Amino acid sequence: MNEQDLITGCKANDRRAQREVYDRYSPLMLAVARRYTARDADAEDVIVAAFYKVFEKIDTFTEMGSFEGWIRRIVVNEALMLLRKKHALRQASELSEVNPASYSVPAEAVQRLAEADIMSLLDQMPVGYRTVFNLYVVEGYKHREIAELLDISINTSKSQLILAKKRLREQLEKLGYRAADG
Amino acid sequence: MATFDPFESEFRRRATGLRRTPSAQAWNRLEHRLDQRGGLRIFGIRPWMVAALLLLVAGASIVTSVATDRNNPLAQRSQFIEELNTPYVPEESFNPADYRNELPDGQVDSPSATPLEYRDIVVSAKYRINS
């Protein structure tokens, strides 16, 4: 079945189509959820809730944009809801003096990292840093959008990103990668 | 538009390529939720819709019965408060002259028109009709 058939099947509440959508997108979406939650069990809870919402709200999918992108947004929202429920997003600090150049990280360091290392780097970050870093760097949200999503100021979002990168740089240095000169 | 440094671009490329296989229980849980959603629908009507409708009907019938039952203390109380808040306005149609004309001839200005027990009571000037 192609994507259009799957969407039509899901709209008709066809369980076979729902299963195929799940099989096709759940590995990617579980990895997305896992980047936010830091626990495998929480990530699975997120995708169960997210796919339930996908099948429940499938009629609202306009088919103008990407189906995968639509599912991904639902997964990210569900992950943020879980973090909010656990009060994990409360601690957010704002930097008064920011020098992004001093926190730059060498790109070549990431190229040699394994999947487990990437997850481990993210897991070691505080929830606030990790969430903003994921939303900005991986999902491509703007600071204004992140501020609205997390109910924080734009400056706090920027601060959290810089602190996240600083933390990454420290961790990469521990792994033996030399940071770029600021 | 967001701008990415080389590290961010590389991290993004690597992170978006990650995949993880969910456990079999995850699909079972999802299917169970989907079954529950489907099973509880009867002709597209959900139980909470029926409960909400029943509550609305019950609420409306209680309000109607309270409003129409004059013996109900709640209805009486609201009537009483209304009376207290409304200043007394005498009927405009009442005309003392007409009233007097309708009385039998013998009773107009006749001492016998007033009961004996009220004859010695002096009526305040502001309440006298012909003051």
From TrEMBL, chain A:
The keyword Zinc-finger does not apply. Residues 117-168 form the RNA polymerase sigma factor 70 region 4 type domain. Gene3D superfamilies: 1.10.1740.10, Winged helix-like DNA-binding domain superfamily/Winged helix DNA-binding domain (1.10.10.10). InterPro entries: RNA_pol_sigma-70-like, RNA_pol_sigma-70_dom, RNA_pol_sigma70_r2, RNA_pol_sigma70_r4_t2, RNA_pol_sigma_r2, RNA_pol_sigma_r3/r4-like, WH-like_DNA-bd_sf. GO terms for molecular function: DNA binding; sigma factor activity. SUPFAM superfamilies: Sigma2 domain of RNA polymerase sigma factors, Sigma3 and sigma4 domains of RNA polymerase sigma factors. One of its GO terms (biological process) is DNA-templated transcription initiation. Residues 22-86 form the RNA polymerase sigma-70 region domain. Keywords: Sigma factor, Transcription, Transcription regulation. Pfam families: Sigma70_r2 (PF04542), Sigma70_r4_2 (PF08281). Belongs to the sigma-70 factor family. ECF subfamily. This is Sigma-70 family RNA polymerase sigma factor. The lineage of its organism: Bacteria, Pseudomonadati, Bacteroidota, Saprospiria, Saprospirales.
From TrEMBL, chain B:
Residues 92-112 are annotated as: Disordered. Keywords: Membrane, Transmembrane, Transmembrane helix. This is Uncharacterized protein. The chain crosses the membrane at residues 48-68.
